[in-house]
């Protein structure tokens, strides 16, 4: 397992939340405002300003996964200018007639729950793994500083290790924590692959 890939996947998971929040707010607020003002024609440019960047955000994420950010940035600026240079009605009808527009809307709205799940896993998995790994240290600190002993394993697992003392059980928990720490690169790499599949589904032609 490539550690650099796992670290990159973890960083991407951490960065998904701000991107997901921005895309969700942009698309939802733009659609609500544009559709409500469509009857007075003001909604047409608002919908164009919402849908064109929504499609570009989807393409940006697709290119980012492939490592082609610069190419996409140039195309994004040119496409947005072309959209406002042409007839507004035709541009809007063209956008609404294409499947990729609706996939971009789905991607932008779905990014918020996906990014929340990614951020939660990116934070809780390492904290839980290292917390369990440090069980012996926690046991010793509690014994020395506070004068009480606690059982590291819960009531479900404790019967399996009835032969061990609480301190020995803390080392068993530490071994489990070490296994979790060693599995973290594999887990983050697998989560990164799941996210790439989500992007590829939304980018399907």
From TrEMBL:
Q: Which UniProt keywords apply?
A: Membrane, Transmembrane, Transmembrane helix
Coiled-coil segments, which residues? none
Transmembrane segments annotated in the record for this chain: 21-48, 102-132, 170-191
UniProt superkingdom: Bacteria
- Which InterPro entries does the entry link to? Put_sensor_dom
The record's annotation in Pfam families points to: Sensor
Domain Putative sensor, by residue range, is: 17-197
Q: What is this protein called?
A: Putative sensor domain-containing protein
Which organism is this protein's natural source? Answer: Paenibacillus montaniterrae
